[in-house]
Each structure stands twice: as C-alpha cells, then as structure tokens.
Amino acid sequence: MARTRKPVVPGWFTETGDGRDPADFRLLGTRCRVCGAVFFPREDFFCRDPGCDGTELTEVPLSPRGTVWSYTDGRYRPPPPYVSDPEVPWQPRTLIAVELAAERMVVLGQAAPGVRVADLRVGMAAELVPGVLGGEDEGEDAETVWTTWWWRPVDRAGTDAAGGGRDR
User: Fold this and answer.
1) Which three-class secondary structure string do you get for the chain?
2) Cβ pair 166, 128 in contact under 8 A
3) What CA–CA distance (Å, rounded) separates 127 from 135?
4) Residue 76 main-chain phi, psi, to 5 deg
5) pTM here?
6) 71-84 per-position pLDDT tens digit
7) For the segment 11-63, what is each residue's pLDDT rounded down to a tens digit?
8) DSSP state of 44
C-alpha cells in the first residue's frame, strides 16, 4: 500500500512531484508589503519587525541555497513536539544553520543523511532538499510518510559535498 506524504508542519514548505527532486521543494515564508521583511516560519497576521505596523503579508518561496552559518551535532533527544520513539536508542543528528542572503535570515534544519559535522565548514554552500522526519527509515507509519526539510552541503560544481551524488 502506498503511503501518503504529509508535511510535519503544514504551510512551512511546498513539495511538488514525488519529493525526490530538490528543484520541486521550497521553504515558504511571508513578506511584509509595508517594510519588505521576510519571515520563516511564516507569519500570517502581523509584521514581526518591531518598527513596522504592517499586517498585509504575502507568501513567498525562500531561496533553495545558502551558506553554512553554523552547525553542530544534536546528541540529545529533542523534546516534544519532535516525534521519536523513546524505546529506540537515540542517534545523534547533524544540525545546520544556513544563511539565506536574499532574505537576510538564517534557517535551522537537520542535515541530510550521511552528512557529518566533519563534512561541514562555515561559509560553504548548502542546498535545501526534501527529507523525512527523524531520518530515512524513521519518518513513516502505516499510512504516512512525514516530510520535512534537510540541508545538504554542495561544492561549487553543485554536487553533494559530503560524498555521493545528488540522488541521495
């Protein structure tokens, strides 16, 4: 039986196609029409800029590439609402903060499977790729594949800098 792909947080990203092509996947933010500030996660009611009274916000897709701003390995089980089975031993996750220059913001996310802290350096290029909550084999139940986003480092030629090809 085919499982339904559902976003972990509806409205935070868009996914077209079968979820395998990074070009079909974008984070969604909102832009204030008054001051031009962009927000992620999205904001639907008021501008978060403390100097702006704007309430007219427009959904915008965010840049799919940026530069590594910081990174770490998560050695602890995150608290709810993160979903994890307490009966399964925790596996550390590599976390990457990526700066999106056009939006003037930093977005945190898990690294794609196989990306280790040793593979990363501040300033390197990273791209957004579709992911599964908890990892490749953990983000599924009987009916659903829970989707999220991952960051993957890329070299200047546009290939996966952590080893392997773009089809990872």
Assistant:
1) CCCEEEECCCCCEEECCCCCCHHHEEEEEEEECCCCCEECCCCCCCCCCCCCCCCCEEEEECCCEEEEEEEEEECCCCCCCCCCCCCCCCCCEEEEEEEECCCCEEEEEEECCCCCHHHCCCCCEEEEEEEECCCCCCCECCCEEEEEEEEEEECCCCCECCCCCCCC
2) no
3) 17
4) -125, 155
5) 0.81
6) 999 888 877 777 77
7) 899 877 665 666 778 999 999 999 999 999 999 999 999 999 999 999 999 99
8) S
Residues 6+ apart with CB under 8 A from 45: 55, 57
The closest of 22, 27, 99 to 60, measured between CA atoms, is 27
Query: What Å distances lie between residue 168 and 23, 32, 136, 157, 164, CA to CA?
Result: 14, 36, 10, 16, 7
The answer to whether the beta carbons of residues 47 and 97 sit under 8 Å apart is no
Q: Which two tokens stand for residue 143?
A: 């009916």
